[in-house]
Amino acid sequence: MASGPLTGFRIVDLSRVLSGPIATTLLADQGADVIKVEPLNGDLIRAMGGSGLSGTFVSANRGKRSIALDLHTEHGIDVVKKLVANADVFIQNFRPGAASGMGLGYEVLREINPRLVYVSVSGFGEEGPYAHKRVYDPVIQALSGMADIQASSENDRPRLMRTVIPDKTTGLTVAQAITAALLSRERTGEGQAVDVAMLDALVSFLWPEGLVGLTFVGNEANVKRGQRTRDLIYQTKDGYITAGALSNREWEGMCRALDKPEWLTDERFSTPRARGMNGALRLELTAEVLATNTSAYWLERLDAEEVPCAPVLSRPEVIEHEQIKVNGTVTEYDHPHLGRIRQPRPAAKFAATPPATEQVAPLLGEHTRAVLTEAGYDEATIETLITDGVAIASE
Amino acid sequence: MASGPLTGFRIVDLSRVLSGPIATTLLADQGADVIKVEPLNGDLIRAMGGSGLSGTFVSANRGKRSIALDLHTEHGIDVVKKLVANADVFIQNFRPGAASGMGLGYEVLREINPRLVYVSVSGFGEEGPYAHKRVYDPVIQALSGMADIQASSENDRPRLMRTVIPDKTTGLTVAQAITAALLSRERTGEGQAVDVAMLDALVSFLWPEGLVGLTFVGNEANVKRGQRTRDLIYQTKDGYITAGALSNREWEGMCRALDKPEWLTDERFSTPRARGMNGALRLELTAEVLATNTSAYWLERLDAEEVPCAPVLSRPEVIEHEQIKVNGTVTEYDHPHLGRIRQPRPAAKFAATPPATEQVAPLLGEHTRAVLTEAGYDEATIETLITDGVAIASE
Questions:
Q1: Mean pLDDT of B159-181
Q2: Across the interface, do B309 and A165 touch by the CB < 8 Å criterion?
Q3: Which residues on chain B are in Cβ contact (under 8 Å) with A184?
Q4: How many CB atoms lie within 10 A of CB B145?
Q5: Which residues of chain A have pLDDT under 50?
Q6: ipTM field
């Protein structure tokens, strides 16, 4: 059924929570056969929902198959090795050294399968003072400069972003890296080890403008300057909108939309540079005007002048928005265990190899028997593995 | 010299500003030959720095070659077509329809090169009420629910994230999509069109926990609940730290680290569920304790109890941090036109095909002559193109 660009590739996925699973879900959407190897009590984030299928688990694991194994037993590890023999990718996000300790290090697995792409995702890297610490998303936000970037303009208090950007950005970085290693293998025939640390991924992600002030050695910018002004969210009579004017043409359009012709000749605002120097004042004056009428009123006027603008949507409004509907950004379908659900469509549209939609997240051990059978285990051995508690199969 | 996993692939890159250039820089780091086709006055973000090489331009264009062409002329378009004949990927982020209007639509270019991967990056998608609007990063933050997610816990005012997450997340999404289309082509022999809209990329990125409350149709969560509590940034006597305890073990460690043994037996905090119900109180009490001593004091105690924690680093502190140094997250090197600069190392480490570091961003038209020569133009024709103003070559 799968027709995405990753069709025909198999991934043995021991990663948990978010940074790894988000990467492999993107690849599952694109057609990869992802075998999620879970501990007997399941991936931690299953428990965030009563059914073992929390909304977050579904989003980060749709389109995968689940096999539940006791990885503390030799038999459990043997099963993983058998799966690896027929896989293209192995991925884990245990703490550094843990996979080797389990007998699943790169040296061991490449003996079994020299073409294997072996991916390790860590919080802080393989070595160094933080390497063995526990990682949570806020810890990476704190260390990468992200909390500093988001600091309050009123009192400089650092702030967290209220969505787990480090985990998710790492997921995208890992998905691209896996795909690149597979592409390289098509030409060289060789597998390889790929390492991604969340901290590195975040610094790289933030850099182009978030950390750019540190680019020129000896001439570092005062990186806090930009935070002293308010942001581009404006309160109207009945809600919030955003609007911004960078070019002269956009600024002139904004002056007309706001019915402030006198600003057109005001030398404090006459050039991009002047508008930058007087940013705080300009934004305050803009806010005062926008507060005097409704969102719809202003958006219509700003649109007519081709000033970039939009309503600030609440989350429930997002899925009802006309552009989201035209794009089919969100898909609604029946999930066999959950009833009617919504999921985002994979963002990239491939004309010739369209990714899958309506992907289903697995119950714990839902595919244990099927995966073991494919790996060459006979029925008697499978029953023994289950009876001995090495594997769990949900029916 | 290039040894990354994308070595041997050529990308003709007409994209500008950030969403496209960030994608192609990642691929240039990984060894792709990226030919940046610029208008005669250069990519807009060159102008953010006096030299035409602003910090942001460098980060988003390192490792590329630049050819400057007048794309309003037939000769300029002809050059692009010649480049496409020997390329693997063509990418543009003009407004929908603009590339076709210039004679560079997919139908035209695939006649020239049927194996071409043709990538279009848009703000809102190819159709629909917003398709032809101008896009700025805050507009996508407003429409995708991101500004709602970041709303103030005090007064519900939506807030922007102070780093251009939509542009950069789209860049990662596009880089993966290009790599996937190339991987697919290795098996099928066929090129294809790939479309990515920033709005779609953001909704997909936010969903796993940011929009997850909308997953179950008819049973949508009160998505604002989580914002009523403070975040996990704590002020100490001399700075800010983050610390968090999810599991029972971590919570017990935190009680010991904070010298609050009485919390261990407090039934308001005795289970993850109870701690969730009493989250606001718990965080306030934690903040009160942490305010009584220094960051170093608390971090040492929390570390000893294996509670996830970290100092909140300012941006200048990030590049001095020991873990960042051990990782080599940031590289310092001489740029021929800029002196000593810092750039983030590509996050993913490939053992067999290491990405390039110390990549240089091009001056406008720095590679015009070389690229034209490679495309088969003779010297006389190149001079004519330059004399006629169709191309600019910087020396």
A1: 96
A2: no
A3: 5-7, 350, 352-353
A4: 29
A5: 1
A6: 0.96
**Domain residue ranges in chain A:** 10-207+328-392, 240-311
Closest of A244, A214, A210 to residue A226, by C-alpha: A210
Residues of chain B with pLDDT > 90, as a percent, come to 84
Write the residue in B159, B206, B340 that is nearest to A218 by C-beta.
B340
Chosen from A161, A187, A188 to mutate, greatest number of chain B CBs within 10 A: A161
Beta strands in B5-134 (DSSP E): 10-13, 33-38, 64-69, 89-92, 117-122
Cβ–Cβ of B176/A179 closer than 8 Å?
A: yes
The alpha carbon of residue A173 is apart from the nearest alpha carbon of chain B, in Å, by 7
Compare CB distances from A308 to B139, B180, B197 and report the shortest one's residue: B139
Catalytic annotation, residues of B: 167
Partner residues linked to B90 by β-bridges? B12, B118
The pLDDT mean for chain A works out to: 93
Give Cα A274 to chain centroid, integer Å: 38
Instruction: Decide: helix, strand or coil at residue B339.
Output: strand
pLDDT digits (tens, 9 = 90+) for A292-330: 999 999 999 999 999 999 999 999 999 999 999 999 999
CATH 3.40.50.10190 fits B10-207+330-392, yes or no: no
Contact criterion met (CB < 8 Å) for B59 and A212 = yes
Contact state of A321 with B227 under an 8 Å Cβ cutoff? no
Q: Please indicate whether, in this complex, the C-beta atoms of A352 and B190 are within 8 angstroms of each other.
A: yes
Q: Can you tell me the distance from the alpha carbon of B92 to that of B123, in angstroms, rounded to the nearest whole number?
A: 12
Q: State chain B's mean pLDDT as an integer.
A: 93
pTM score: 0.96
pLDDT digits over A110-154, tens only?
A: 999 999 999 999 999 999 999 989 898 999 999 999 999 998 877
Give chain B positions within 8 Å (CB) of A131: 323
Measure the CA–CA gap between A96 and A120, rounded to whole angstroms. Answer: 8
Q: Are A226 and A150 within 8 A, CB to CB?
A: no
CATH 3.40.50.720 fits A10-207+328-392, yes or no: no
CATH topology for the A240-311 domain: formyl-coa transferase, domain 3 (3.30.1540)
A167 is catalytic: yes
Domains A10-207+328-392 and A240-311 alike in fold: no
Instruction: Band the pLDDT of B1: cuts 50, 70, 90.
Output: very low
Report, as an integer, the average pLDDT of B208-226.
81
